[in-house]
Amino acid sequence: MEKTKLRHLFEQMTFQEKIGQLVQVSPHFLDENPEEGTLTGPLQNVIMAEEDRFVVGSTLNTQTREQAAAIQKRFLEKSRLKIPLLLMADVIHGYRTIFPIPLALGASWNPALIEEMAALSAKEASSEGIQVTFSPMVDLVRDPRWGRVLESTGEDPYLNQVYAEAFVTGYQGTDLEKDHEKIAACVKHFVGYGWAEAGRDYNRVDMSEVELHQNHLPAFQAAIEAGAKLVMTSFNVFNGTPVTANKPLLETVLREQLGFDGVIISDWNAVGELINHGVAEDHTQAAQLAVAAGIDIDMTSYSYIHAQEELAPLQEAIDASVWRVLNLKNDLGLFENPYRGLTEEPIDTEALRGEARKLASQTLVLLENHDQTLPLKADTAIGLVGPFSQSQDVLGSWSLMGDPSQSVTLEAGMKPYARQLQVAPVAETTAISASEWQAIHNVFATSETLVVALGEASRESGEGASKSDITLHPVQIELLKQAHATGKKVVTVLFNGRPLDLRAVKQYSDAVLEAWFPGTEAGNAVADVLFGAVNPSGKLSMSFPYTTGQIPVYYNQIRTGRPLTEETKGYQYVSRYLDIPNEPLYPFGYGKSYATFELREIEQSTTELDPDGEIHFSGLIKNTSNYDGTETIQLYIHDQVATVSRPVKELKKFQKITVPAQSEAPFTFTLIEADLRYIHPDLSNHADPGLFDVFIGTDSLAEKVGTFKLLEGGKG
Ligand code: GLC
Q: What is the tens place of the pLDDT at every residue in 66-92?
């Protein structure tokens, strides 16, 4: 619609209709007989008056194309100005066909794969009437006790930036108005939600301005620069003030510094929860605070509806919010076609499942493989035991319309490959019955190789699913110990939504494959890797702690004034634990392959970098095995002397290279001054002249390969 017509429409709106545009309701309020719909949790007993219902601006998480079509049709019939409804949803890692959880996608180190996943998700969701997704989630997370770590792409600000851009590009494409297979992206949760104190969901978040700007804003910046149409605010307080009422954060940082001019939507009931936070006495004050802070859409707290008259003094802010919402609908082409990508019939999900299988196999991380235990031989007598041997609980949290009954079990995936496969399933992740033990021991006795499928139930990660202990349930460790005690080869496959303490798994396994929650095609993707049809190439995007007590542990730590080094390890007064090492069990960037690789002849083009110049690091990667394989070469820097203490390593470049067996390939990385910039105490972002060490390797333990000097005159 032309802007002038849109402005004309805006000017016809009553104040109540304007408030309505800023309200998001659960779809059941717009169903045929809403009184039948009951809300649970904080919003139970909310009943909406008829006149409030058909002026709202959006709804979320409709269940079917029929419901979406019926709601939009009914809405347009009843809306005075025929302003179409926005239909939003949590399309986090798929809509109905489910892809691996984002923490698994983060292990792909393949932005193109993320973009493809997002595009496929958008295609399926838009065909069922969804127009906006509450994704990507770009929260920086270093605490795996926090259940929502599964929704993140890991601990590194740079990698999160790369992925954030890929998600948004995949969801939105290049012409959102006309390409109805694309949906608008809502980047979340602004800001710091993953920094929850003690890893306990919704808990306090407090950090310095330097920490915020250095590590948490870059991924939001990347999503916004990629064109994300919405930002969702987070539940938490930020430095004392709930984000939902934090005007400086939303106005100065998000709007002005990051340049975001799209729609800001609160999280679920977060406006109403300003009362729980103790900064609002009632829904009216909560609404006033949120409107004044710049929250455009109140997601399901109904505070804006409650407070209509009292919001009149905030008319200017209300008008600005309404204008942004109308423009979002216009950018989606809804005035011309309110049903947008909705199709009469389901799209071809078989094709989607094929893509899901292929993508999932690239997210699996081979953590151990002693004596080439993997890949499994098809003619081996294989015993498959454990709670995930036949489980369909493999979609992971936030799998929206995904139907577990449609997911492929590990047994089903392995059957086509194995000549002899015996299975002894375990129903629960927290108990093994006597009859189950009996079956397990029978399988132990008649198998040559044992595959032990362990993990967390999907309900153990996700929202409201923080844990104080990241070890597997003891009964699963007992199962693994007994498998190990048979003296047969033991392959452990893990289904989990967070980094775990895997010391026992490492001790009692010959091979360990981290499968995360691989989605609808789980069993096929895992079997493709177990039997060597796919050579694993995943690399951890988040450290696996040695133990819960080591949290937070991450590769880009600072040295401290008393670093633990070879020289200082004999002293008492250094930064260390008395009972465990400083290093994680598995580091950021780590993952094995069936192939073996060597990096050779690494050279740097200069020892001095002119601020306007480039420095190149080149070398060869040789595949010394008989397997074709894919390796991810990673380049890290260390700023030797800076205004603030800089991390011992910072990921700055990576390349995922496929190298055929017994051959080699060249690689080159280029660094420029902009790659060396960091946030100074005055929040300026620039590089200082001086010495930088460079590390190149296949995980964050990469060796130093050189040092160069950035010359004076760096850009500010
Ligand atoms: C949830 C989550 C948020 C999600 C929203 C809508 O509570 O915090 O990530 O998008 O509500 O379901």
A: 999 999 999 999 999 999 999 999 999
Same domain, yes or no: 603 and 474: no
Expressed in angstroms, the distance from the first to the final Cα of the chain is 41
Enumerate helices (H) and strands (E) in the chain, giving the number of each: 20, 26
Which amino acid residue places its CA nearest to atom 11 of ligand 1? 268
What is the per-residue DSSP string for 161-219?
Answer: HHHHHHHHHHHH-S-TTT-TT--EEEEEEETTGGG-GGG-TT--B---HHHIIIIIHHH
Same domain for 463 and 372: yes
**Does the beta carbon of 463 sit less than 6 angstroms from any atom of ligand 1?**
yes
Q: Which residue range(s) make up the domain with 244?
A: 23-31+50-331
**To the nearest whole number, what is the mean pLDDT of the chain?**
96
Pairing assessment for the beta strands 230-233 and 263-265 based on DSSP bridges: parallel
List b or e across 142-156, with b for residues whose CB sees 16 or more CB atoms inside 10 angstroms.
bbbbbbbbbbbbbbb
Is 520 in the same domain as 607? no
324, 377: one domain? no
Per residue in 336-366, pLDDT (tens digit) is: 999 999 999 999 888 899 999 999 999 999 9
Same domain, yes or no, for 482 and 385? yes
User: Are 377 and 483 in the same domain?
Assistant: yes
Q: Where are the alpha helices (DSSP H) in 514-647?
A: 522-530
Residues 452 and 374 grouped into a single domain: yes
The count of structural domains within the chain is 3
Mutate to test the pocket of ligand 1, among 59, 268, 298 (most ligand atoms within 8 A of CB): 268
Ligand 1 centroid from CA 236, angstroms? 13
Cβ pair 108, 114 in contact under 8 A: yes
Cβ of 143 below 6 Å from ligand 1? no
Answer yes or no: is 347 within a domain.
no
Q: Is 201 in the pocket of ligand 1 (CB under 6 A)?
A: no
Residue with tokens 């979406």: 68
| Distance of CA 26 from the midpoint of ligand 1 (Å) | 12
- Average pLDDT of the segment spanning 14-32: 92
Residue 507 belongs to a domain: yes
- 339 is a domain residue: no
24, 61, 151, 87: which is closest to 402 by C-alpha? Answer: 61
Catalytic site residues? 267
Residue 627 inside a domain? The answer is: yes
User: Among the atoms of ligand 1, which is closest to the Cα of residue 151?
Assistant: 9
Q: Which helix (H) or strand (E) holds 156?
A: none
Task: Say how many C-beta atoms besides its own lie within 10 A of residue 244's C-beta.
Answer: 34
Return the residue whose CA atom lies nearest to atom 6 of ligand 1: 268
Distance, in Å, from the CA atom of 34 to the CA atom of 43, rounded to the nearest integer, reads 14
Tell which of 512, 530, 548 closes a domain: 530
The pLDDT score that the predictor gives to residue 716 is 45
CATH of the domain at 510: 3.40.50.1700
Ligand 1 atom 3 nearest Cα: 267
**Ligand 1 atom 8: residue of nearest CA:** 267
Is pLDDT larger for residue 302 or for residue 632? 632
Q: Is 268 in the pocket of ligand 1 (CB under 6 A)?
A: yes
Find where tokens 């009964």 sit: 475
Best mutation site among 148, 463, 466 for ligand 1, i.e. most ligand atoms within 8 A of its Cβ? 463
Residue by residue, DSSP assigns 489-539 as EEEEEEE-SS--B-HHHHHH-SEEEE-----TTHHHHHHHHHTTSS-----
Rounded mean pLDDT of 271-287? 97
Locate 589 and state its tokens: 């960037």
Where among 530, 556, 585 does a domain terminate?
530
How is residue 254 written in tokens?
């998000």
